[in-house]
């Protein structure tokens, strides 16, 4: 949808510069490129401008001006999203508003178990600063060296510690948000308990910038878990892995912090990405679990892991296992998990999914979906792995090695259809943690009940009647005009 | 605001009966009384009728009919709310819609760590049924033998286990809600992770029935904590109690499940309510903490509590303590906490508050607020106790014993003003867990920023444009007309 000619593109840029200042506005294509291309490099788009405000007030000013000029806004954090929620689409009247310059940690209060941070702070920098005070912010994901906390909140990011600490939503005390009319919602409280009616901040968590721009966040801290036990275990099946999870959930109580499932192919893929990576377990078990228990203070984590592994190996649920004897060894076990991702990327364009079903149906679902893919796309390879304790797997599909780019696209499309057809029978979710963005909008809308659509539309109209915020993301509302 | 004459009251009742059936409708004053009087008996009101549907479809039918007749609806669960959110006010066109007959547990799936239950199920019945399957639903509050899960969700109830498991919001996977237009929002999934955009169910949690009627809930279960260690500890001050909490949070990690602060007066009050209750600790320490650690499986809870107490007593943070040696002894310790509440009730009408501030400021706040009350209401007695690990205290005020009813009311009013003035300086919350209802509406509205008011109004208009749902609760929107 092209609203304006190139002439007015130039006019917009002049107005943005004159009103917001040259310092804030990028408009050269080369400068804008990193903000207009997604994390995987699948999509490269363009924008009227990229705005890089330094303060909440500048964000508010930018929002008001864009609204006045008829421009819509795509908010962006670290641009590590996996569903094209933070890059502009083909529409010609979009600006990207990057929060990257709002990266200050405003306060870390260990005595209050809280911190306040601007949206553009890189997650790992926040985690490190918090760790220096002996505290811990549990959100942990592969992109943490690049993603920014505002984006994590906007997408309600998941990651490897969800089973213990919850999604990002559960780690948040408060938010500061610039609303589509340029007003500022000041909800940056660090109160642990505040039950004054409808909790407005919930609206913006997971909204992917469609209702406002998160500019700052207050987060919940826990004591730093200075004891960590990490084990890589070999099992007979995914079904046994789920049995093991149930057992661990009870035996290790609330001290289990990660439980990741991997197929044997994980090692091959990890080796393709990191040839020198040590693999300290035989690679011929049908299923693997990377498990972590952690804690602080008087609990004895090593002892707990030891007794747990002894019990489950004696019972035959776990066939083989290796326990990290040092932080380096633990890090190397996690590198297998990360290398598996890189290895998939090295094999070229492939289907990435992020689905969830009921935990009690997960093994059946994966078996059925993998069969469906094998039938629909002969020669392709399924890589099913992930946060099985949450009922969440990344059931990815690598097209046949010999497939040409167009064939790959076709195979990805067909495989996705096959998986989703099974998923729908299991009443699963097409997005357990990545969000909807623009990538999954079609699949999302196709499954949206009329009641939900009505509520989402009513909400959008109530909060962003001008349809300024992130058009085309999540739902295809009419653009502002 | 009287909309209609008594004649149309009769007409309404006839129409309700003829369209919904006699079985559903109560309209005799004596029958309606228990639904029109609040838990504490402070307010007795009246209603056009009390509707008691047996199914979601009947709720939807009732909502549509009320909307058609110009009646507004006050949803009610167990009617144990503390802020008059579930009893009608003086308005003449209100019906109470009680969920008490929708009390089926639809499903408990221990393998999935989930259960699905209708809104009218009594909390303790749900907890018991879940415990029979070896699982645990952590919501725990004094009213649990009477309150109903739908009301718990509508008020986002807190209770004694919040510090470990979170508020009700964090215990919920999904909701079924009848919306103000009579349509049904079917969000009863038990997926642990589902990140498909804006999380609509969050709107209804804590909305106290102002946006719809919760008819069923799917909840998150954890393994049953079959090991519990309970201790009652004597300390030198609230400040030391908070130090102890910080220490316990680190030393006992995520295994601490309760940490309740009580003043020495707790014992006097408990004895007034339960004269035979054993008090197994000297009653002359300035501060007490009732602390619980719990867990399942391979963790050794008794050992952990033992080592923790040894350390903190050696360091002098804890001056004296008693550890429950049996379930009966643990139960008796909790009876002190409950008896303290009953004892306050026995002393007659008094101020009950439910405030929170930053944990790091709690001791200062309580000292300052108690001084302010002592100055403003000489002869009154402050009873400050509660969930200090959450920064949440019930800073209650008992008027002077000799005060007449009118004086008591006056003293309560003055004491509340004194506390709130201090609370505002600390940027605290007037409702940490009880909600707003009608009781706190004035205090809530007085502190509401224009941006929040705008958002709440926009939300209400978007979802309940006819203003059918729970008028006068939380905010004073115009009634439907």
Percent range for β-strand residues of chain A: 15-25%
- What's the architecture of the largest domain in chain A in CATH terms? 2-Layer Sandwich
Major pleated sheet of chain A = 5 strands, antiparallel
Q: Structural class from helices and strands of chain A?
A: alpha+beta
Radius of gyration of chain A: 23 Å
Q: Identify the overall geometry of chain A.
A: globular
Calculate the terminal CA-CA distance of chain A, rounded to whole Å. 11 Å
Domains of chain A (count): 4
How helix-rich are the residues of chain A, as a percent range? 25-40%
Continuous helix count of chain A: 14
GO molecular function, one term (chains A, B): FAD binding
Domain FAD-binding PCMH-type (chains A, B): 43-224
GO biological process, one term (chains A, B): respiratory electron transport chain
Pfam family, one (chains A, B): FAD-oxidase_C
How would you concisely characterize the structure shown here?
The structure is a homodimer of 481-residue chains. Chain A is an alpha+beta fold. The first copy, chain A, has helices spanning 6-20, 29-36, 56-69, 123-132, 149-155, 162-165, 238-251, 265-273, 301-314, 327-346, 362-376, 405-425, 441-446, 450-463; strands at 25-26, 49-51, 72-76, 94-98, 105-109, 114-118, 135-136, 172-178, 184-187, 213-220, 222-223, 227-235, 256-262, 287-295, 320-323, 355-356, 381-385, 392-398.
